Amino acid sequence: MALERTLSIIKPDAVAKNVIGEIYSRFEKAGLKVAAAKMKQLSRAEAEGFYAVHRERPFFKALVDFMISGPVMIQVLEGEGAVLKHRDLMGATNPKEAAAGTIRADFADSIDANAVHGSDAAETAAVEIAYFFPSTDVYVR
Ligand code: UDP
Hints:
This is Nucleoside diphosphate kinase. By secondary structure, the protein is of the alpha+beta class. The chain is globular, with a radius of gyration of 14 Å. The chain has seven helices and four strands; from the N terminus they run βααβααβααβα. Helices cover about 40% and strands about 20% of the residues.
């Protein structure tokens, strides 16, 4: 397995539930290290840009509205096979289908308020990390 970085976002619903620490604890127990982090209130333009790939999807406006409904916690996670490891911790997009013990099974209420975002591949991760963090703000752990 390769040492990788992935972009993780704790979405407004999970920030509001005050479970940032619980979620960070799962990352650390799985061997993922926080290499950069910040809390941020996204602007509409930032959220639209981040989810540009979904622009034509019917849920796009609702997704953007949700992502700007409160601050998010954004982090870069680093570790062996970080992209897949993080996706496994997150669980399926729809929390009703998420495996027991995953973040979405435990903290998400619905497919549109589903607690976390995680990059889906190493290539996307590089783009998403650069979207939020200058390279000087990402630390080698
Ligand atoms: N989403 C939604 N309705 C859908 C599908 C997706 O609201 O029917 C939202 C949901 O918040 C999801 C995000 O759009 O996390 C991005 O969708 P994707 O398929 O990339 O899922 P993810 O990679 O987040 O599991």
